[in-house]
Design brief:
By secondary structure, this protein is α+β, with helices and mostly antiparallel strands. The chain has one domain: PAS domain (Beta-Lactamase), CATH 3.30.450.20. Helices cover 34% and strands 27% of the residues. The protein is built from five helices and six strands.
Length: 161
């Protein structure tokens, strides 16, 4: 696994990452009526807590072929990519081609309803390792005006296949 030495551990301090972290957290609360993490301290401290959380948090934007925009430390480790690699990856490539239709259906369902929970599916790391995700939550990320600006997922249960 390649890491961009020097900046990887401090990625959460980037002002754009801090802002996106707040949107992830605010949107999760909006759709699920609870917090993803304990919201204490400054926005920077919350971004740090989210980045180092003991569960996966990953998100993408709203491009025609959405690109991953965020992946916390555990997501980077699971997908075997550093921040730079992860945030250049089309979101669809986190699943094998055979599983992309099911993944797309799940994302469309979340887009329509705001969120879905208890999702599962097979995903693939940057080096080709397959893993089954269970009990994932997928939610829409919304901006200040309530417009959809992305989608995110979180999960803490997976097993390598």
């Amino acid at each position: 696994m390649v890491r961009d030495a020097g900046h990887e551990e401090e990625r959460w301090t980037d002002p754009a990452v801090v802002r996106w972290s707040q949107l992830l957290l605010d949107s999760f609360r909006r759709w699920l009526g609870r917090e993803l993490i304990e919201r204490k301290g400054s926005q920077e401290e919350q971004a740090r807590t989210l980045y180092h959380a003991p569960f996966v948090v990953v998100s993408h934007g709203m491009e025609a072929d959405p690109i991953l925009k965020y992946g916390n430390k555990i997501a980077q480790d699971l997908w075997e990519m550093d921040w730079a690699q992860l945030t250049r990856t089309p979101s669809r490539l986190t699943a094998e081609p055979v599983n992309q239709a099911e993944r797309a259906r799940m994302l469309a369902q979340a887009q329509e309803k705001g969120f879905i929970d208890d999702c599962k599916g097979v995903r693939i790391s940057g080096t080709g390792k397959r893993f089954l995700v269970e009990q994932a939550i997928v939610w829409n990320v919304v901006g200040a005006e309530g417009e959809q600006i992305g989608q995110a997922a979180t999960f803490s249960r997976w097993k390598f296949l």
